[in-house]
Amino acid sequence: DAGVIQSPRHEVTEMGQEVTLRCKPISGHDYLFWYRQTMMRGLELLIYFNNNVPIDDSGMPEDRFSAKMPNASFSTLKIQPSEPRDSAVYFCASSFYPGDGYGYTFGSGTRLTVV
Amino acid sequence: KQEVTQIPAALSVPEGENLVLNCSFTDSAIYNLQWFRQDPGKGLTSLLLIQSSQREQTSGRLNASLDKSSGRSTLYIAASQPGDSATYLCAVRGGSEKLVFGKGTKLTVNP
């Protein structure tokens, strides 16, 4: 298995532009999570899906952020319009349904810079 | 609301030393606890996962323990090497399936 695949690895965009981050979870995983990492706040959960359905989006900072999971093998996180304070590393992770023996597998992340 | 704390925030040790990283959490109703390693500019690599019914897990020079009742976990690294230098993150998974992270301990092992 190739693991959780995120694209792009790096994204530099101008303030006000739309940004779309992509994630392919591990096949068979029921849960998909989007996290954001900054120096100040560490890793924060933005939203997670179970069987393609958004379960908890309470971590999404503003209406400028939206996430979709149209099928079991693909998810997007969109920011529109982007702002400099959105600059961070965005991670996607996937997991099986919790039996307590299952952990998360993270992708390599997308480093977003908004100038 | 679950909160995870890691102490110390940074640690510098000479090569060969045995060391312990600490993690505490406020809500003991967890499914599991996972330790991750993160190298600068890189993603998260899972090191060890301890299920709620377990007390410890071992992998090579790493040993992680879990005491649910006291809300604590430790990561023990034996015979540290410069290649162990990284940030180590502790995360707990609770009933909501969310993984809540500590802010990490940045470890530097000096040759």
How would you sum up this structure, described in words?
The complex is a heterodimer of chains A (115) and B (111). Chain A is mostly beta strands and 115 residues long. Chain A has no helices and 11 strands. Chain A has strands spanning 5-7, 10-13, 19-24, 31-38, 42-50, 53-56, 65-71, 74-79, 88-95, 105-106, 110-114. In chain A, strands 2, 4, 5, 6, 9, 10 and 11 form a 7-stranded mixed sheet that branches. In chain A, strand 7 and strand 8 form a beta hairpin. Chain B has 111 residues and is mostly beta strands. Chain B contains no helices and 11 strands. In chain B, strands 2, 4, 5, 9, 10 and 11 form a 6-stranded mixed sheet that branches. Chain B has a 5-stranded antiparallel sheet with strand order 1-3-8-7-6, with no helix packed on it. Chain A binds chain B through residues 31, 33, 42-43, 45, 48, 50, 55-56, 91, 93, 95, 98, 100-109, 111, and chain B through 31-32, 34, 36, 41-44, 46, 49, 51-53, 89, 91, 93, 96-104.
Give a brief rundown of this model.
Chain A has 115 residues and is an all-beta fold. Chain A contains no helices and 11 strands.
Question: What is the topology?
Answer:
The complex is a heterodimer of chains A (115) and B (111).
Chain A lengths: L4 E3 L2 E4 L5 E6 L6 E8 L3 E9 L2 E4 L8 E7 L2 E6 L8 E8 L9 E2 L3 E5 L1
Parallel strand pairs in A: 2-11
Antiparallel strand pairs in A: 1-3, 3-8, 4-5, 4-9, 5-6, 7-8, 9-10, 9-11
Chain B lengths: L3 E4 L2 E5 L4 E7 L4 E9 L5 E8 L4 E4 L2 E6 L4 E6 L8 E9 L4 E3 L3 E6 L1
Parallel strand pairs in B: 2-11
Antiparallel strand pairs in B: 1-3, 3-8, 4-5, 4-9, 6-7, 7-8, 9-10, 9-11
